[in-house]
Amino acid sequence: MIHHIDTAAAEIAEFREKNPKRYQELLEAGIRIGFGETVAGSGKKKLTAEEIRQNYKPADPDYAVLTKAVIEGNVKDAQRLTGELLAKGRDPTDVVVHSLMPGIQTVCEIYDMGEAFVPEILLANDALVAGVALCQDKLGNIPSAGRVASLVIEGDVHDIGKNIVAAILRANGFEVIDMGRDVLVGDVVDLVKKEKIDLVTGTSLMSTTKDGLRALAESIAFSGVPVACGGAAVDDHFVETFSNSVYGKSPLDAVKIAQAVAAGKDWEEVRKLMKGKADPEKVKA
Ligand code: B12
Hints:
Elements: H1 5-18, H2 20-28, H3 49-56, H4 61-71, H5 75-87, H6 92-112, H7 118-139, E1 147-153, H8 160-171, E2 175-183, H9 185-194, E3 199-203, H10 211-219, E4 227-230, H11 236-239, E5 245-247, H12 251-262, H13 267-274
Helix pairs in contact: 1-2, 3-6, 4-5, 4-6, 5-7, 6-7, 6-8, 7-8, 8-12, 9-10, 12-13
The chain binds cobalamin (B12).
């Protein structure tokens, strides 16, 4: 970990001098080469599995038992507990975001540190999906706020986050065409030519697949349909290296982006809006 600013500056200068081509590539790809950020994750404290569980555990005890059911991949309990929360009048979006999602996040992080295995992720995902389905049923038929196509980009099979984004968009009144994972840019081009789509959401979890989001945004720019880009492999710096795109961190960001696009704003206005830099006069809904 870098503690001293001069040391950090010297490291960056040395890196640029030794490897100017790679330095330029990283800059162009939108990767931050900053103080203490030259080695990814080098400054992060490693948490234990128990600390991860505690970090994500909701303070509300009713929410915490449902989170636990997701972590344990217990589909029956996840269904029963979600049903009970909804029967008590809890808001379906809130249940997804603050009770079901922390469960899957916990398992994914514990898997990442090598203390959980693929079957555990898949079971937790089943429990998550069962709970999310009940929340969607509860919302019933509400008038469509707009049409969104959601996908994971070509080469990437990580679809848990995309599924959550699609669920939260649906919970907020959007009609979602779920195109699945490992989706070809050409298929999205065909879709926007054939159907009326307001927004595309693209997810990438791998550095090897994130460039597909650039290809996607640029390939459908002709249609005027912007791409909301998210997933752990991308950040605002990367997404801002190409046009027709807006970066979003969370599923609720996807909702904000979809609402702004449905209100008639173009991708540049929405980008400013998401960064809190919008001219209030220009972007009034
Ligand atoms: C689960 C997982 C898997 C599962 C995926 C199951 C599935 N159906 O998705 C399995 C075991 C199959 C898998 C396989 C692989 N994986 Co994997 N996997 C993970 C893991 C542990 C968690 C990912 C996850 O689901 N997170 C939870 C979800 C909820 O988060 P999320 O997707 O980021 O989504 C959230 C936000 O980003 C946001 N969001 C998502 N999309 C969008 C879109 C918009 C528009 C917006 C606004 C927001 C938004 O909302 C979500 C909710 O908050 C990560 C490590 C990690 N901790 O992230 C590695 C990780 C992503 N995997 C990795 C790798 C390398 C692989 C493999 C290549 C391994 C291998 N050698 O076979 C294969 C990939 C095969 C392929 N072609 O894709 C690497 C990628 C490294 C990199 N940077 O390139 C990671 C980072 C692990 C690591 N540390 O090395 N993996």
